[in-house]
């Protein structure tokens, strides 16, 4: 299920859903694609999909590792696909990111929900120049020898995942993001580059026990402002929206 559909459902429910991803300010950045048969383009969001493994320790903690592939650049507040970009055709971007944290279970409107709060983690972004890198089940990589590391962060803050019923959303923020020399040749503006990466999207529901694998959509935006943790009232609105979205999906299936 696409993230924008979830956002629309939440907005119809109560108009507060945007605060769940309040850090997604869609700040412009410029990338130089001349080495990848392109030009210089201005974007404000990168978009793709991910696969993630989450291990629960049975005492309220979790460890997650994800491989995300980004194949689209967007502009216009994250609404318009850049058709003049060669991302997705001549090359792709991918990221490996990890998080550890705590998980809490609660009941809302008769449904059990899970709140995952990230307390530590890291994010590393790469360019796959010939779009052939894949990840194994243990997240080791294949055909990555000619890939370029663009930037990384080892600081995670204000990060949360929320699932209820058949749907889930996450909003993870990595700060102190620093470009490599190769990254500075790709992300050419602003200079110095943004220090915050906000990674958010949706995921398939999973049990919060043992080791689980999930997939979903993911977007990344950059800024210098830290994200804000959603207030409890916002989480309640989010739960209502996810419940309503699940009920709508079940009606359509029937």
TrEMBL record:
UniProt signal peptide: 1-24
Keyword Signal: yes
Domain Ice-binding protein C-terminal as annotated: residue spans: 229-251
Family matches, as Pfam families: PEP-CTERM
InterPro entries xrefs: Ice-binding_C (IPR013424)
Recorded superkingdom: Bacteria
Record keywords, A-Z: Signal
Alphabetized NCBIfam families for the sequence: floc_PepA, PEP_CTERM
Protein name: Flocculation-associated PEP-CTERM protein PepA
Organism, as annotated: Alteromonas pelagimontana
Gene giving rise to this polypeptide: pepA
């Amino acid at each position: 299920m696409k993230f924008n559909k979830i956002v629309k459902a939440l907005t119809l429910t109560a108009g507060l859903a945007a605060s769940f991803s309040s850090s997604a300010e869609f700040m412009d950045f410029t990338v130089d694609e001349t080495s990848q048969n392109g030009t210089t383009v201005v974007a404000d969001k990168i978009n793709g999909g991910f696969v993630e493994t989450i291990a629960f320790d049975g005492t309220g903690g979790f460890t997650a590792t994800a491989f995300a592939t980004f194949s689209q650049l967007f502009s216009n507040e994250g609404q318009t696909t850049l058709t003049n970009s060669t991302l997705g055709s001549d090359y792709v971007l991918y990221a490996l990111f990890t998080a550890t944290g705590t998980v809490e279970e609660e009941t809302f409107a008769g449904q059990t929900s899970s709140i995952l709060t990230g307390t530590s983690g890291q994010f590393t972004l790469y360019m796959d120049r010939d779009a052939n890198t894949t990840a194994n089940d243990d997240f080791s990589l294949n055909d990555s020898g000619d890939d370029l590391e663009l930037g990384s962060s080892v600081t995670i803050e204000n990060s949360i995942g929320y699932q209820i019923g058949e749907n889930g959303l996450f909003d993870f923020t990595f700060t102190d993001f620093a470009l490599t020399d190769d990254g500075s040749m790709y992300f050419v503006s602003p200079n110095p580059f943004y220090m915050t990466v906000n990674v958010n999207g949706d995921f398939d529901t999973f049990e919060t026990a043992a080791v689980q694998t999930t997939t979903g959509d993911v977007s990344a935006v950059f800024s210098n402002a830290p994200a804000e943790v959603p207030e409890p009232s916002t989480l309640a609105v989010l739960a209502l929206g996810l419940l309503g979205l699940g009920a709508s999906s079940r009606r359509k299936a029937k």
